[in-house]
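Morning - 6-O-phosphoryl inosine monophosphate inputs below, output right after.
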Amino acid sequence: MSATVLIGAQWGDEGKGKIVDLLSPQFDVVARYQGGANAGHTVCFGGRTVVLHQIPSGIFHPHVRCVIGNGVVIDPVALLEEIRMLESLGVRTVGRLFISHMAHLIMPYHKLLDEVGEEARGAERVGTTGRGIGPAYVDKFARVGIRVVDLLDRQVLCRKLRANLEAKNELLRRLYSREPLDVEAIIEQYVAFDQMIDPYVTNTVELLNDALEQGQRLLLEGAQGALLDVDFGTYPFVTASHPTAGGACTGLGIPPTAIRGVIGVAKAYTTRVGNGPFPTELSGEEAEQLRLRGKEYGATTGRPRRTGWLDLVSLRHAVRINGIQELALTKLDVLDSLEEIPVCVAYRIGEKITTVFPTDVQTLERVEPVYEVLPGWKQSTAGVTDYGALPERARAYVAFVSDWLRVPVRWISTGPAREQTILCP
Ligand code: GDP
Ligand code: IMO
Ligand code: MG
């Protein structure tokens, strides 16, 4: 039995898609366990760049079976678009992509409620991706959600949709002064998904546990990142699921005892998209330079990402709550031209110096990062594939991170493409 969880160790967009694609040859199954189309996982190979939102990033390896687990909230409109996009690239999905019948569906009213909810929050808005993720999880836990399996029974679907729309339309009208949504149009649209989605719908709990029993290797692909976890992240500026390693078991129905490894993916610096505290955030020209060099624009929404230095205090938190045993450090090449590179090694809170990550935003808003400044290497590392070929100072930077966290850096990424990666000795 062996499953490995791969998670984002920061606020998302660490390069999980690239690393999952890179590691896929070593796995038989790649499974997503939470989130939905708020994710944007970029995979680059053979001169091609593809952004995946709901389909696991192992899909480009024909031997890999890909699973969308019960913990994911599925947007069928976006999913079918993604399937079509893959088929147009010659990637077969039928017989390779399996969707849990228990996964909840994103409905048009979830997206609308996401939008109006954000508007109503004003300055306090989370800065969501607008994909309806929060409202879909709300319905799941309120026990009024509509699941994939409901698509396959028209009567059930119609009944649940009508009940939901009645309530949501009331909410939209009374609380947000919005026009009600057309029940019949939505029924028609969603009823049409049954045939399209049918070939993919499976009891994925059985599939995954059978695979484990047969000794197959599973890679469990987290979306978002540890600091966006609804409990352990910077609440309320978080997503509505558990991207942390613990979420993999409940999001897939596999036992904790099956998990043998946890890989954390972190950028060599930090980015965040959306609102909320970000202690090492840069401003002005410095922030812009890092954004430009790292091409830091959201893969899902195109929003400019906020940029800042590497924050070892928050990474230590991520290491602890996920049990990260190995790190993939990405985008090292983005730091190539810097004279000096500050790394945050503690927070100052008033008189106190701490390495404990405060998860209440009031405290986090007022921490002052304590930096250790490392010398830059001022030499290109773009595309380097051999650890020995890295400039000495680049190696020292990586060693500093791994020594401080006491976690080995196993992979260093030096460019977006699959092969632009170093497997560390
Ligand atoms: P994910 O959500 O964690 O999969 O990450 P995203 O795909 O949203 O964002 C990562 C971005 O960085 C993508 O555009 C990748 O192509 C790119 N990328 C990944 N690794 C590297 C790297 O080592 N160097 C550079 N320059 N770009 C990278
Ligand atoms: P990947 O998987 C970065 C952020 C949003 C917002 C907060 C809540 O590509 O790393 P949501 O739409 O989930 O309700 O938004 O979470 N967010 C992400 N940030 N990468 C992501 O996914 C994200 N998914 C959500 O910007 O701050
Ligand atoms: Mg992303």
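Note: The mean pLDDT is 96.

O.
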